[in-house]
């Protein structure tokens, strides 16, 4: 690698593993919660709401704190201390999980909401870690290669996503090929989170004593953005009121209300949250273009569009797999599910969830090649070899529980070749990557909706391959040209992980009302917006002569 602090980078990316491990594990934990606590698909998706909503709340708290103190709190701490403090918060959430589920039995819905609180606290810690770690990684070398360093870190993150579902499925269900709910207990969850708390503590100590990792800071002064702050507070109020009512609607107070009316109200309120995010950010950037005072980083259109890009990307990446468990166990008669596959329970579907997240690992390992100072000819060779090395790791991970069949390996290999062609055509250009991969995402989701059998299943699984490279591309494009607003812009972008909190529950409610297959139209719309984002961002940055 060139012009960068490699030891510091390698130390930093350890935390990326945990983000991936937990994010992917939710794909197994969600169907587990749905069955164990006897809740509907929307309620099960509140796992994502709690986890990813915490990213938004955590980053917003940090921003408001900085605004009132007129000091960039994270910059004052330094990125290293910010990561350590984030790990300590996540430890608190992991420990809280133990008493939350202690003594719980199947059907005890109330306990599920305590689980959500624990996940929310863990997510708060992750929010602080991500706010610090992403600009930290970019700062450890030339900004022009910042997306490559994020890809490298993303590769480690995706290794966590590849093994997370398999390990969590083993912890929850053991080695049995089918789930026996008569013997399932939450003591395994308690043990898991105590182990996680210990792991977080060890990483925090490692960061504290590490000599390789400088306590980096951004030297630019803090720039207040009172109007942006107020806009984000309004967004929070809308989300709180909407989801607050939805939570309340599941209480006995509404037991005599017509079910169809309740379902429609819940869908309307969830959709209102989604619309409010887009409406408020577009309105903010429009107002900032006329009078930039008080808007901070939001006066840059690439940042405003980037916020919506991150929101949509995280939302679609999470929602495809978090609803996958339900897709694979929907029985519509004769032992065959909605897409023509044998009905699979929570333990059996884990390998497909792992394969989905493995697709992200394949793409990120491939995308990280640009971080190395190598010849173009060697780079072309590695662009073909690296994806299959990563796929080999995925095959090996699955071999310990529910191995992939030769047919599945063959199908996914063909899909990997499509991704490789996309990389060759993009030529390491972030805008081209976004354009090509979002277009492929649209095609894949349409094939999944209208196809059947393995064709449909693997079309949905390619969502991981095509989402894999989007985070570093959107992040680096969004902070291009922000100058002194880079740190603030990074904070705004991390807030927009909120997409993982709103889009999956929205799909969950669509699934409750219209069916699981029809609910995947939300993924089609997300990829369409990401295509619009890539085209628009190219025009914005070209106009500013930044690309």
Explain what this protein looks like in three dimensions.
The chain is globular, with a radius of gyration of 22 Å. It has helices spanning 6-12, 14-36, 41-44, 46-69, 73-77, 79-101, 109-139, 146-173, 187-209, 226-248, 259-290, 301-322, 324-327, 350-367, 376-399, 406-426, 430-450, 453-467, 470-478, 486-495, 499-514, 516-519, 521-543. The chain has a single domain (6-212, 220-543), classed as MFS general substrate transporter like domains (Growth Hormone, Chain: A, Up-down Bundle). The protein is an all-alpha fold and 547 residues long. Helix content is 75%, strand content 0%. Helix 6 (79-101) packs antiparallel against helix 7 (109-139), helix 16 (406-426) packs antiparallel against helix 17 (430-450) and helix 17 (430-450) crosses helix 19 (470-478). Mean pLDDT is 85; it is low at 332-336. The protein has 23 helices and no strands.
Helix/strand/pairing category: mainly alpha
Mean pLDDT, nearest integer?
A: 85
CATH class: Mainly Alpha
Span between N and C termini?
Answer: 23 Å
Overall radius of gyration:
22 Å
Q: What's the number of extended β-strand segments?
A: 0
Number of helices: 23
**Tally of distinct domains:** 1
CATH-level-2 architecture = Up-down Bundle
Which outline best applies? Answer: globular
Superfamily (CATH H level) name: MFS general substrate transporter like domains
State the major sheet. Answer: none
The H-and-E topology, N to C, reads as HHHHHHHHHHHHHHHHHHHHHHH
Find the CATH topology: Growth Hormone, Chain: A
Strand content: under 5%
Instruction: State the helicity in percent bands.
Output: over 70%
Unreliable residue stretches: 332-336
């Amino acid at each position: 690698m060139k012009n960068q602090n490699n030891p510091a980078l390698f130390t930093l990316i350890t935390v990326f593993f945990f983000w991936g491990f937990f994010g992917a594990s939710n794909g197994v934990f969600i169907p587990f919660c749905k069955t164990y606590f006897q809740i509907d698909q929307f309620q099960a998706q509140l796992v994502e709401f709690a986890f990813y909503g915490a990213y938004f709340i955590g980053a917003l708290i940090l921003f408001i704190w900085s605004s009132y103190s007129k000091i960039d709190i994270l910059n004052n701490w330094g990125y290293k201390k910010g990561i350590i403090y984030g790990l300590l918060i996540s430890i608190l959430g992991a420990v809280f999980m133990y008493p939350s589920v202690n003594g719980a039995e199947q059907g005890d819905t109330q306990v599920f909401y305590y689980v959500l609180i624990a996940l929310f606290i863990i997510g708060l810690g992750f929010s602080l870690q991500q706010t610090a770690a992403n600009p930290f990684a970019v700062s450890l070398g030339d900004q022009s290669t910042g997306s490559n360093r994020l890809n490298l870190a993303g590769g480690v993150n995706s290794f966590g996503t590849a093994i997370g579902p398999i390990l969590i499925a083993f912890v929850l269900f053991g080695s049995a090929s089918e789930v026996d709910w008569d013997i399932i207990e939450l003591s395994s969850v308690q043990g898991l989170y105590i182990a996680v708390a210990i792991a977080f503590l060890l990483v925090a100590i490692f960061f504290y004593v590490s000599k390789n990792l400088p306590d980096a800071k951004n030297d630019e002064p803090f720039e207040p953005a009172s109007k942006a702050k107020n806009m984000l507070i309004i967004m929070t109020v809308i989300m709180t009121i909407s989801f607050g009512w939805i939570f309340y609607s599941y209480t006995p107070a509404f037991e005599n209300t017509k079910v169809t009316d309740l379902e429609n109200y819940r869908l309307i309120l969830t959709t209102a949250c989604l619309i409010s995010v887009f409406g408020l950010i577009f309105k903010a950037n429009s107002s900032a273009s006329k009078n930039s005072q008080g808007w901070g980083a939001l006066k840059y259109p690439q940042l405003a569009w980037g916020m919506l890009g991150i929101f949509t990307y995280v939302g679609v990446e999470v929602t495809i797999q978090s609803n996958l468990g339900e897709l694979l166990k929907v029985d519509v008669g004769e032992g065959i599910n909605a897409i023509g596959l044998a009905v699979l329970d929570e333990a059996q579907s884990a390998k497909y969830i792992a394969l989905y997240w493995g697709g992200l690992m394949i793409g990120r390992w491939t995308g990280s090649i640009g971080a190395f100072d190598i010849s173009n000819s060697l780079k072309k060779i590695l662009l073909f070899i690296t994806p299959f090395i990563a796929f080999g790791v995925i095959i090996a991970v699955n071999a310990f529980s529910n191995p992939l069949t030769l047919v599945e390996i063959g199908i996914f290999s063909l899909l990997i070749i499509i991704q490789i062609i996309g990389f060759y055509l993009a030529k390491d250009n972030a805008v081209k990557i976004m354009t090509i991969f979002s277009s492929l995402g649209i095609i894949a989701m349409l094939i999944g909706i209208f196809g059947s059998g393995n064709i449909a299943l693997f079309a949905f699984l390619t969502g991981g391959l095509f989402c894999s490279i989007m985070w570093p591309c959107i992040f680096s494009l969004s902070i291009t040209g922000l100058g002194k607003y880079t740190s603030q812009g990074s904070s705004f972008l991390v807030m927009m992980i909120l997409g993982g909190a709103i889009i999956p529950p929205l799909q969950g409610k669509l699934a409750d009302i219209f069916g699981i297959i029809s609910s995947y139209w939300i993924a089609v719309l997300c990829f369409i917006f990401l295509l619009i984002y890539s085209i628009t961002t190219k025009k914005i940055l070209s106009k500013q002569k930044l690309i």
